[in-house]
Amino acid sequence: MRPIVAGTLGMVAWLLAPGNAGAQTVNELLQSCEAVTNAARSASAGAIDIPRAGIPCWYYMAAVQNAAVLVDNDRRRLLGVCAPPDATLMDHVRIFVNYARRHQKAASENAAAVAVMALGEAYPCPAN
User: 124 pairs with which residues across the strands?
Assistant: First the structure.
């Protein structure tokens, strides 16, 4: 396994680990992501000024987006997310917000796991 892939897989495992002290709950991430989507609604075309409250969401979802493109030796997506090439980080944030709002029972769960489920639902990989 290449060192970059191994390091990234370690980061993903750390994010998804239950009881991880650094892991955010869905509710915490949802609040931050709602700040981003609210700012996007009031932004001019093509420019989003991420508010301070939205910064954790922006970086968190960027990490999830980057991890979502990892593949195994058979070129299968490791996280089961097959977003189209033109999907933006803002698209990912909106998908997470909509999913988290629909799944309120998951509010205290690990945000990374729920983010991956949300993106996997929105961008399922084709069956092999």
Answer: 81
Q: 66 with 114: CB under 8 angstroms?
A: no
Query: How many other CB atoms sit within 10 Å of the CB of residue 45?
Result: 4
Q: What is the mean pLDDT of the chain?
A: 83
* Torsion of Cα atoms, 49 then 91 then 113 then 26, to 10°: 50
Spell 83-110 as b/e; 16+ CB within 10 A means b. beeebebebbbbbbbebbeeeeebeebb
Q: 1: which DSSP letter?
A: -
pTM here is 0.78
